[in-house]
## 1
Amino acid sequence: MKKIQFFNKFLQFSIISLLSILNVFADANPDIWPYLKAQAFKDRAIEENQSFLKIDGPKRASSGAQVPVTVSVSQNDHKIEKIYMYIDANPGQHAATYFLTEHSQVVNISTRIRMETDSFVRVIAENDQGELFMDVIPIRASGGCSGYMDVHDPELTKDLGKIILKAENDFVTTRIKHPNFTGLQKDLDSGGFIPEWIVKTIEFNHNGEKILAVENEISISQDPFLKFSVPNKLEGDIEIVAIDTKENKFKSEVKTN
């Protein structure tokens, strides 16, 4: 069984490496989305002709391991419950799901993703009626999900779970110290695959009430970064609770300014 699992990982890594080489000068491929949509959303209609949901990012990323993107939701007539982020050409196409509350219906969310090759990056919002809305951008990037790493490098896990948390000017900003191994990276020493180990969930609470939550997948960058706006001036404590795939729990809180 272990041999089969290793072979499958090796095959997946080999395909990713080949695609990266072939796509060095390639544009984002529009042919992937119909298959991804059918897998993720079946035959549900997705409205693209909308004005309240937007994703922004660089045309070309300086690093495929840290690609900055921002998702914004402006005033609208819907109650948005979830926002899904997908990266068409990534081995882990589903990057994250954001869970909105009444405190985050109008919001800007900034994060950093990993991209293996040029791809469309898209966000799909779902309202309380099950209706779907989408925005999409192409980004050129490479090599962010795989490659070789020194798993024994102490800097990768030094201060594991240390949280930088700020709440000021109606924005909450956080960064969590964590290697966020994708499961597709190879160890420099053994040549084997480093097991997946990521910050899976992050939840933000204000005076005990949830503001925003996220479920991350492997396409979120090392040392996960998240910055989001809140529409009203908050007073009191902002608490963050994060849990990784080894069930480690990290917590911090800060008083708003």
## 2
Amino acid sequence: MRQLPSLNMLRVFEEVARHRSFSQAALELNVTQGAVSRQIKQLEDYLGVALFVRTPQGLTLTETGTALSPHLAQAFDHIERALQAVRVPNLRQRLRIVAPPTWATRWLSAHLRAFVQRYPDISLSVTNQMGHESLAEIDCHIRFGLEAASHCSSRLLVMERHIAVASPELFNGEQPPDLRQFPLLHILHDGKRLKVWENWLAAMGREDVDAGQGLEFSTLDQVIHTALAGGGLAVIDRQMIEKELANGSLLPITPVEVVGPYGYWLDVANDKQGLSKVQLFTEWLGLV
């Protein structure tokens, strides 16, 4: 174990030695002149020698102080360079979020104005991919899934609320489209179809519809746009299509709504939980 005095004492000495002034060092360190004087006295007691003498011309380093000063300045330079080498740029100002593309486009984008107005000093960087080289830079990961992650702080933001919808052109007056006459639109997740149609049909008690038939897409946005164009029927989280339901460009086939089992989770690495920007974002998500 290294036998070192307080780094704060050494930092105070380095500032006083550089400015040759207790008062100027106090200004730089944002402390009182008395606090600076006490730190220097404690360091001198630790070393057993004086580091400064007062002369008519001002504060002067002793022989010991003169010998110590450049070594400490060099040591602090090394520490600063080492920290800058591993520090994430704009760590305090920029909040880096990875989120599913449709959630980011349809939910987060619609609410970002409120976040920016509440926290104007936080800049957001929202992406939908997380490469291994950028893991250390990610502050929050919004994840679509079935359960909490075990390797980090993980909390459920919202469960999906699935409804079956179609374009108005597929309705015959007020009569909804026949589920057996139009393609079912499916969403892929991690290369596999999500069983949203199976879950919804089970809730309806419909065993006469082949849930395996239809078209599949890599993003929910593609499913939504295909449904809007009348290309098929879709089971979609109603929270992702609030605008379309409100303006009537998509209509519910029935009032039946299936909650879950999928949801959106907020995952935060253990070493990021203490960051104020992460805490503010987490609190804001709970208010929306």
## 3
Amino acid sequence: MRVIDLADLPHRPIEAHGSRGFSVGAFGLGADTHLVAVDLAPGGVIGRHPAVGCQLLVVFAGEAEVSGAELTVRRIGPGQGAVWEPGEVHETRSPGGMTALIVEGDLDIGAPGEQVDPGDV
């Protein structure tokens, strides 16, 4: 077993799409999926851009204000997530700062539980 401390991952700042106060630390890669630890400073923004694939943002600490193609802003906190479909233009802001995980790629978010984990047989 390995233990990964997401806070210890090397992070790099991202300024594309007008982003500010935004850094990422990649820590996992699959055939069609990648996992990224995200830090958003207080007042930070991940600028409006299209999702490359299906994208899931899960907040671990802090809060995020997220919006998608319809521009409706929703506030999410720890234990909550936002899902954007491939190509959907979206944005994330955080007035107080946020730590999160992004999983992006060939995902089926919301698949019935028995498909994801059939349990012991």
## 4
Amino acid sequence: MKKINILWMLIGCLFLVTSCSDDDDSAVASLQVIKSDVSFTAIATTGTIEVQSNSAITAVSNQDWCTVTVNGNVVTVAVPTYTGLVGRNAVVEISNTLDSKVRVPVSQAGGVWYVNGDDLYGLSDEESTITIPVKSDYDYTVDMPAWITGEKVKEGYNFTLTENTTGNARKGTVIFKSQKGTKEITFVQFGVNDIAGTYEATYSTFGEGDDWVSETVKIELLQDEENEAVFYADGLSSIRGVVLPLKFDGETYQLSALNGQYLGFIESQKWYLYTIVRSEAGYVHADTSLSYPAIAELDVDDEELMPFFPFKDKKGFSFTGETGTIKSFIDAIGVYVFASKSPTFGNNNNLGYYDIFKDLSIKKIKADH
């Protein structure tokens, strides 16, 4: 009889142990995460954490920028737009009334925002399209002048510039705006059809005693009717009606005063006039392969774009002089007088300068009305 009682006591103890173990398992399983979607980009958005719980739950975030709300067994996590470059992290702790807790990590990536274009683009007067690489995690807008249109494309942003028919260089600034910041890009349209007009010319010329004196005059650049790349400087020469020829290269934006060009004949003096260039070494040259060049400059800070041409020979050239081969640079364009219709030197054919324009520079200005 005593053996039977001991057996039943052992069975009872086993039952109690088993019951306690089941209670512990139930407590562990009373709260668990079923699904979560709380890995965010830099843009303001929400995600959810879904849990399984045997009792009501509460949730709290350890970071102010990460906020939570609870509806049943779903925790909604909200994050604002983030403009930092490096990602950030938070932890949401969820509890139930049985004192079970789970901790869920929340992450938000740093924001990407870049406009990979240059600050300034120089384009011809023809209609053209250019793509600016853009990558942004943020919504952005683009402000632009009426003669520029644009659209978002896979590669970034396409801009189309309409043909410039104003007769002057023009500029337009587009402004990208996002929560991350702004980016400005300026487009300049400038070409052969923007050259003609009124200019202020500054140069040095021979004064009394062959000293150099500075002068400033207004001139007109007239476009040739048959060759749009050729222009004539009217008013530069002191001889009325004589115009100096120049040529514009739309690829390099170079305006060159042409050398060795026949300008006309003065019957009363029996003078033949040609353009010549002068080298810094003091020699006169009528070779048509030489010219006096100037690369266009535009001050994009000005309200109106007026091209400026500072004539300067940057390459230099070699020629045979009295002392042998000489290396020099061209520093002037001028009008020279010859005794025959041949710009050659010697045999009393070269009679001398009529005009000389040393260190010439010209800038377009508004025409007088």
